[in-house]
Design brief:
This protein is α/β, with parallel strands linked by helices. The chain folds into 4 domains: 12-216, P-loop containing nucleotide triphosphate hydrolases (Rossmann fold); 217-270; 291-511, P-loop containing nucleotide triphosphate hydrolases (Rossmann fold); 543-618, Helix Hairpins. 39% of the residues lie in helices and 20% in strands. It has a 6-stranded mixed beta sheet, with helices on both faces. β15 and β16 form a beta hairpin. α3 (109-118) runs antiparallel to α4, α7 (214-246) packs antiparallel against α8 and α16 packs antiparallel against α18. The radius of gyration is 30 Å and the shape is globular.
Length: 619
């Protein structure tokens, strides 16, 4: 790695650092100096050793070779990915414990109070009752008040909401400490980092530029390495040919060439092959109706820890159509996950109702990964009924081979879920969901613990997905790259929709200082009215409507089968050349079937809405 171009001596550094587990080196001969005022982000694949390298710099683990340096009198403070604060302390006392020693008796409570408020924490609460995200915020507050010379932050934005992330950015921008940050949040790194360190196959490369310059720079490094590898292969081939032709006659004189060839082969052997990348594929979306989800006048509230009523939804109405890519955002505690669960039918609203469209099949990536049983193995997670195969794109595939696509080793197939890191659990849950039939992807905080490369692949997969996406995230860059509209939870149960990604949402919020929430003056788009409103006093459907409602699912299934058959016929590239009239006729039939399917789906929704209205009237 090229040395830092700073002329001042480092406050903390690794010199010639080497560390491995068993015979697998995580990093070798690494130099990493951090000077005061540095703003460095550390990137690399999950499992490449980023967190281990940071722990070595923090003095948490010993090196196999090399040394760790910390300037005498300097303070290096480290925030791990999964902090475990003592359960018996209050938030205030725990954070105050991070204050640096002082020679005077001047009270510094205001420093603690300001930082705790910035992290949206109650200073009187005991750490033992905090959620994992709250405990992380408390540990981050303790790190911030410690006035460090070097601050080492491992995924600091995990479980933080957008207002807290923006507050943290402001605090770190003003900090004089040297920063080393591991984060998947590009927007966070874009604002803070001016240098990038890339840990790749045990080597550390340094770029004196921010995260936006990283992709092109990394691609050039890999291209240069590939060129060097080709040159090495040619030299080995040339030397091997020369020695094979002339070694017998000139054995004694050419032992130097033999030793040289052995050195070249050893160099080739020592060149660690770049690991194969993640094969992320959500698969084909199954067919659904044009309307996916529709909410009418949703109301939901609960009593918080202080005995106060907290409203999650106040007369919220919204509609999600097939192909929509919707981002759901708001501060922690606003009720994003609760609203999501109501829309999916997992949780009942206090008032209002949700209509799920015809043929909708959802898969739900839950924030807490509760769909994964810690005591199950990876194998049994993907094959809960036994056996050794999963179905991918309609074809059987061995479960171990499928796990390799998600970067798991063969040995991990029989390991328990409890042994996995956060990023590995995310990949396993994606693997579990993607083999299920679906046309609605619901992702609640999918970006936590994923590396930048995996995030890029997930973004591409969402962009190419033919179904509908509903996404909860605090990652601004990820939202900008994936969604086309935003549902913002703006407090007190008020919800408003915005067109575009996060940047569009932010610009519109700044333009309209007092937005009108859905559920107040503008209750959102009204659902399509059923043909023929219910007769006054009617409490049940007519025989004709009831019969049509019961027959429609069979008709929709038949039309879907006909469309699939016609699409298969038209997929024949030679059909038009052989039979142009037949091609045109089949195309006309396909268009007619698609129009009939849309009409049938709309009629099914209309009759379902009519049935529900009549049932409510007769209740």
């Amino acid at each position: 790695m090229a040395p830092s171009d700073k002329t001042q001596p480092p406050v903390a550094a690794l010199r010639g650092a080497t560390l491995g587990f068993g015979d697998r080196p995580l990093f070798h001969d690494v130099d990493l100096p951090i000077t005061k005022g540095d703003r460095v982000c550390l990137v690399g694949r999950n499992g490449s050793g980023k967190s281990t390298l940071m722990r070595a710099l923090a003095g948490e683990i010993d090196l196999d070779a090399g040394e760790r340096f910390l300037k005498p009198g300097a303070r290096a403070v480290y925030l791990p990915q999964d902090p475990r604060p003592p359960a018996d302390l209050t938030v205030f006392d725990y954070v105050a414990g991070g204050l640096p020693p002082a020679d005077d008796d001047v009270p510094r409570d205001h420093v603690v109070e300001t930082t705790v408020a910035g992290m949206s924490l109650d200073p009187a609460r005991r750490l033992g009752v905090l959620s994992g995200g709250e405990a992380r915020r408390a540990a981050l507050a303790r790190a911030l008040v410690s006035a460090p010379d070097v601050l080492l932050l491992d995924e600091p934005t995990n479980h933080l909401d957008l207002p807290t992330i923006e507050w943290l950015e402001d605090e770190l921008t003003r900090a004089k400490a040297g920063l080393l940050i591991i984060s998947h949040d590009r927007a966070f790194l874009r604002r803070l980092a001016t240098q990038t360190c890339w840990l790749e196959r045990g080597m550390l490369h340094r770029l004196n530029d921010g995260i936006d310059a990283f992709p092109d720079w990394a691609e050039k490094l890999l291209a240069d390495e590939e060129s060097q590898a080709h040159k090495l292969e040619r030299r080995i081939a040339e030397e091997t040919h020369w020695l094979r032709e002339g070694l017998t006659a000139r054995r004694k004189r050419n032992m130097g060439r033999v030793r040289g060839l052995l050195t070249l082969r050893r160099e080739k052997f020592d060149r660690i092959k770049r690991p194969e990348g993640l094969k992320l594929d959500a698969g084909e979306a199954t067919r659904s109706g044009s309307l996916v989800l529709e909410a009418h006048g949703l109301g939901k509230s609960f009593i918080d820890d202080h005995g106060r009523e907290k409203r999650v939804a106040d007369n919220v109405s919204l509609r999600i159509m097939r192909g929509d890519r919707v981002g759901l955002l708001g501060p922690n505690g606003a009720g994003k996950t609760t609203l999501l669960r109501m829309l999916l039918g997992y949780e009942a609203p206090d008032s209002g109702r949700v209509k799920i469209g015809f043929g909708v099949e959802s898969v739900y990536f839950d924030q807490r990964r509760e769909q994964l049983n810690r005591d199950d193995t990876l194998w049994s997670t993907l094959c809960p009924g036994g056996g050794d195969t999963v179905t991918v794109h309609g074809r059987p595939k061995h479960v171990v081979s499928y796990l390799r696509d998600f970067l798991f080793t063969d040995r991990q197939a029989t390991a328990k879920v409890a042994t996995l890191s956060g990023g590995e659990r995310n990949r396993l849950l994606l693997a579990k969901l993607f083999i299920q039939p679906h046309n609605l992807l619901v992702l609640d905080e999918p970006t936590n613990d994923l590396d930048v490369e995996t995030l890029d692949l997930l973004q591409e997969e969402i962009a190419d997905y033919a179904g509908t996406v509903l996404l909860v995230s605090h990652d601004r860059d990820f939202l900008d790259r994936t969604v086309t509209s935003i549902i913002a939870m703006e407090g007190e149960g008020h919800v408003r929709e915005y067109v575009g990604g996060y940047s569009d949402y932010l610009a519109e919020r700044r333009r309209t200082e007092a937005p009108t929430p859905i559920g107040k003056a503008t209750p959102g788009p009204k659902p399509t009215a059923a043909r023929g409103r219910p007769r006054s006093g009617a409490t049940k459907m007519s025989y004709k409507d009831d019969r049509e409602l019961r027959q429609l699912p069979e008709r929709i299934t038949a039309l879907e089968a006909e469309i699939e058959r016609l699409e298969a016929v038209l997929a024949d590239a030679d059909l038009y050349r052989r039979d142009p009239d037949g091609f045109r006729a089949e195309t006309t039939r396909l268009e007619a079937a698609q129009a009939a399917l849309a009409t049938a789906e709309d009629r099914w929704l209309e009759l379902e809405a009519l049935k529900e209205q009549l049932e409510e009237a007769g209740a």
